Amino acid sequence: MTDFKSILSAVEKHIALDDVERSVLLSSLESKTLKAGDVIARSGEQAQHFIFVNIGCLMTYFTDSDGVERVLQFATASWWTGDLDSFSKHNKSCYTTRAIVDTEVFVLTFTSFETLLEKVPKLERYFRILFQNSLIAHGRRITEINSYSAEERYESFRQRYPTLEQFVPQKYIASYLGVTPEFLSKVRRRISHKA
Amino acid sequence: MTDFKSILSAVEKHIALDDVERSVLLSSLESKTLKAGDVIARSGEQAQHFIFVNIGCLMTYFTDSDGVERVLQFATASWWTGDLDSFSKHNKSCYTTRAIVDTEVFVLTFTSFETLLEKVPKLERYFRILFQNSLIAHGRRITEINSYSAEERYESFRQRYPTLEQFVPQKYIASYLGVTPEFLSKVRRRISHKA
DNA sequence: GTACGATCTTAATCTAGATTAAGCATACTC
DNA sequence: GAGTATGCTTAATCTAGATTAAGATCGTAC
C-alpha cells in the first residue's frame, strides 16, 4: 500500500487541492522502489523522470573529463530531483542519479507532467514556488562556493543536512563540497581537534 | 513612451495572452530609469522588487566578511533579476543590485506580483518555466565552478555572454568567475599568447 | 597643465587544497 | 581462514590561484 502522505503534504503546503485534483495528481505518479546503488537516470541518456523522493536518498553527479565523479546534489525525503534540462528539453543528460540507500520514489514522465499541468493548472503555481525556492537555494550555494573556505562549506553542509553524514560515504560529501576526500579528512581532523 | 515589446515577447514566447491579460500585466509594472552606478536594491534592506531588465545591465553582488564584493550574477536585456529570497520571504537581503550602464527596468513589487498572479493565473506557468530554466542554468554553473579551472570558466563565460566584456569592468568579471582580478589578468595574457 | 583616483598589469611570494602514495580498517568472497 | 576490494586517514610534495606590492594607463577635476 503506497503512502502518499508525504507528497500530498508537500504540495498542499503551497496550494489547496480538492478531491478530484488530488486523485488526478496521485494517479499520474508512478511509484518505483530502488535498492542502494541502483541508478534511476543515466548520463548519456535522456532523463525520463522528474522524481519525488518519498523515502531514502538519491544523489546526482556527473563524471568530468578526468573520470572523476562530481556530486551536484543530494535529494532526501520530500525533495524533488532530476535533470530538468534533459527532462524538459529532450537532450542527453550529463548527470547520473543513483540511490545511496534503499529508496522509494514517485516519478512523473515528461508527458505525464505536461498532461497533469493541463488537467490541474493550479499545479503550475506549486511548481513555480518549488522552482523559485530551489533557485534561492542554488543562488546561496553559488555564493557559498566562491566565498567560503572548504571548512566553512563543510560546517554549513552539516547544519543544512545534519542526518546525511550518517549514511553518505564521505567521498561523496567531499565531492559535493568541491574538495578531495583526502582534504575533507584533514578538515574533519582539524575541526575535531578544535572542539 | 515606454516600450513593452521586449517583456511581452519574453512572456508570450511561453504563454499566449489576450488583450485584457496583456494590459493587466503591463499596468502592474512600474518603469524605472537608472544611471550607471545607481543601486536599485541594497544589502541589509528588504528587496522591494522583482526586476525585468528592458535595456542595459545590472549586477547583483554581496559583500563578504572581508569586505570583498562577490558578484553572483549579471542581468542583461530581457533577464529577470532580484533577490527572490528577500523578495518573497520578506527577510533582509544580503545582496546589492546595481546598474553597470544606464539601464531601464520594469519592476514588480511583492503585492503587485501577487495580485498579478491572482488576476492572470496563466502567468504562474510563465514564471514556473522561467524559474525552471534559471534553475537549469544555476545547476550548470555549480558543476562548472567546482570542476572547471579558472581558464575554462572564463572561456565559457565569454561564450555565454559575448557582449558583456565590452562594458563590464574586468574586476567584476573576475569576481563572477570566483578569482581575483590579478589572476584573471594572468589568464587573459596566457590565452592571448596561445592564440 | 598636474594631481588624484580608478582600473588594469606584472611580478614575487605565499597558501589552500590537489596529487601521490602508503598504511589501516571493515567487509565480502572464495 | 587468507585474499582482496573499498573506504578512510596520514603525510610529503606539488600547483592553481591568493596576496602583496609596484608600476602603467586613463579619465577627470581643479
Describe this structure in words.
Two copies of one chain form a homodimer. Chain A has 195 residues and is of the alpha+beta class. The first copy, chain A, has helices at 5-12, 19-28, 84-89, 110-119, 122-145, 150-160, 170-177, 181-194, and strands spanning 30-34, 39-41, 49-55, 57-63, 69-76, 80-81, 95-99, 103-109. In chain A, a hairpin with a 5-residue loop joins strand 4 (57-63) and strand 5. Chain A is globular. Chain A binds chain B through residues 62, 64, 68, 70, 72-73, 84-85, 88, 117, 121, 124-125, 127-128, 131-132, 134-136, 138-143, 145-147, 178, and chain B through 62, 64, 68, 70, 72-73, 84-85, 88, 117, 121, 124-125, 127-128, 131-132, 134-136, 138-143, 145-147, 178. Chain A binds a DNA duplex (30 and 30 nucleotides) through residues 149-150, 169-171, 179-183, 185-186, 188-189.
Write the layout of secondary structure elements.
Two copies of one chain form a homodimer.
Chain A: H1 5-12, H2 19-28, E1 30-34, E2 39-41, E3 49-55, E4 57-63, E5 69-76, E6 80-81, H3 84-89, E7 95-99, E8 103-109, H4 110-119, H5 122-145, H6 150-160, H7 170-177, H8 181-194
Antiparallel strand pairs in A: 1-8, 2-7, 3-6, 3-8, 4-5, 4-7
Helix pairs in contact in A: 2-4, 7-8
The first copy, chain A, binds a DNA duplex (30 and 30 nucleotides) through α8.
Short description:
The structure is a homodimer of 195-residue chains. Chain A is α+β, with helices and mostly antiparallel strands and 195 residues long.
